[in-house]
Backbone:
C-alpha cells in the first residue's frame, strides 16, 4: 500500500472533518411573533439591551412602562416567553429598533436587529424617545445576546 503524500493526507483529513465542523456551527432559527414597537418607555438603560420575560408578574410590570395603559398580553410561560429589545433614551424622535432574526447557537440566543437613527437633515420631534421592539417566542434557556447594526434613515 502506497503512503499518501503529506499534503494529500492533510487534504483528505480536512475533507473528512468538514461535516463535523458544519455540525458544530449549525444554528437554529427561532420563529417569533412581533407584538409591539414604539418610542416611549419609562425604563433606564445605558445602551441597547435585551430583556427576557419568563413569568406573568415581570411581564406585566414591564408592559406597564409603555406609553399607554393597555393590558399585557397573556402568555403560557410554561411554553413561551416574551423578549424586548430596548434602546437607551435618545435626544429626539426619529429613532427606531427592529428585530429581524433570532437564532439559537451554542447555548446563545442571538437577537439580531437594526437600530435606525435620523439623518442629519431630518426634521424630527423635539421630544426625547426610547425605541423598543417586543416579540413572543418559544421558551428558551439560552443566554440572549444582542447583535444590532445601525442605519441612518434618509429624509
Residues:
Amino acid at each position: 500500500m502506497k503512503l499518501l503524500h503529506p499534503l494529500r493526507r492533510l487534504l483528505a483529513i480536512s475533507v473528512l472533518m468538514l461535516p463535523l465542523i458544519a455540525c458544530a456551527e449549525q444554528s437554529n432559527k427561532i420563529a417569533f411573533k412581533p407584538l409591539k414597537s414604539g418610542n416611549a418607555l419609562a425604563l433606564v438603560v445605558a445602551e441597547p439591551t435585551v430583556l427576557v420575560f419568563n413569568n406573568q408578574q415581570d411581564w406585566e410590570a414591564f408592559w406597564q412602562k409603555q406609553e399607554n395603559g393597555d393590558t399585557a398580553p397573556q402568555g403560557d410561560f410554561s411554553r413561551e416567553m416574551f423578549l424586548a429589545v430596548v434602546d437607551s433614551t435618545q435626544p429626539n424622535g426619529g429613532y427606531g429598533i427592529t428585530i429581524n432574526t433570532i437564532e439559537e447557537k451554542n447555548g446563545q440566543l442571538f437577537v439580531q436587529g437594526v437600530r435606525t437613527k435620523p439623518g442629519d437633515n431630518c426634521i424630527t420631534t423635539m421630544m426625547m424617545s426610547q425605541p423598543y421592539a417586543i416579540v413572543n417566542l418559544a421558551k428558551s434557556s439560552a443566554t440572549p445576546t444582542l447583535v444590532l447594526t445601525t442605519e441612518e434613515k434618509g429624509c
Summary: Residues 6-24 form the longest helix (19 residues). The mean pLDDT is 86. The longest strand covers residues 108-118.
